[in-house]
Amino acid sequence: FIYTLVGVSLVVASGCVFNNYIDRDIDRKMERTKNRVLVKGLISPAVSLVYATLLGIAGFMLLWFGANPLACWLGV
């Protein structure tokens, strides 16, 4: 159970970081999101992509090996 919980959490976190990367230009214009780290330049876009990719890989590996391959495919 714990592998599934952590694996899904990592996959969701990966999606959130990818979303922040994609929306970084839009986030500059919005009051609510203008203070995000990518918008402020505290983290480079390249680093955020690497981080998102590593989160996703770790999550998918936990789902594949910790839960089962079906859980991994459903995470895609």
Automatic annotation (TrEMBL):
Residues spanning the membrane: 6-22, 42-67
Annotated localization: Membrane
GO CC terms of this entry: plasma membrane
Keyword Coiled coil among UniProt keywords: no
Keyword terms, alphabetized: Heme biosynthesis, Membrane, Transferase, Transmembrane, Transmembrane helix
Entry annotated with the keyword Disulfide bond: no
Gene Ontology MF terms in the entry: protoheme IX farnesyltransferase activity
Biological process terms in GO annotation: heme O biosynthetic process
Membrane topology, record value: Multi-pass membrane protein
Alphabetized InterPro entries for the sequence: Protohaem_IX_farnesylTrfase, UbiA_prenyltransferase, UbiA_prenylTrfase_CS, UbiA_sf
PANTHER family membership: PROTOHEME IX FARNESYLTRANSFERASE, MITOCHONDRIAL
Stated name of the protein: Heme O synthase CtaB
Organism listed in the record: human gut metagenome
Organism lineage string: unclassified sequences, metagenomes, organismal metagenomes
